[in-house]
Amino acid sequence: MKAKKWRGILLVFLFSLPVGAQEQETNVYVGSASCRSCHETEYESFLSHARKSRSFKSVEKMKKGLTDDEIRGCYGCHTTAYGEPGGFIDLEQTPELKNAGCEVCHGPGKLHIDTQDPARIRGELTIDLCHRCHTEERVGAFRYKPVIYAGSH
């Protein structure tokens, strides 16, 4: 009987939250492979042309001589949503988020996938999204070319 009471309290609490707060709880990162079934052409193009689709390899290649904290510092740009709720944690817990995938630019995909509603995902991308990771300092160091202009999907 106690479980029913708590379940009822939880439902009342959830439905009393503003709509954005409810979505925040349910809209989680699912990984780029989840996009493939509906966006196969874009997905294949992303894998073929976007270096960020293989970004975790850079971390693995460069980690020799780095401390664990330094390596975790790389995760913010080389994985999907590291440090954010539902984002990359580590290779064992969230291997589907190990690369900087579709959701880095388009946002968490669960609600979009569940509803197939285009309004539930970021469709219009701006260069400002790129600048979160591709700072002026990194542009020269990594020969950065914005995917947003490269037509990779």
Automatic annotation (TrEMBL):
Pfam families: Cytochrome_C554. It comes from the Bacteria. Residues 1-21 form the signal peptide. Gene3D superfamilies: Flavocytochrome C3, Chain A. The keyword Cytoplasm does not apply. The keyword NAD does not apply. Keywords: Signal. Transmembrane segments: none annotated. Residues 34-107 form the Cytochrome c-552/4 domain. This is Cytochrome C.
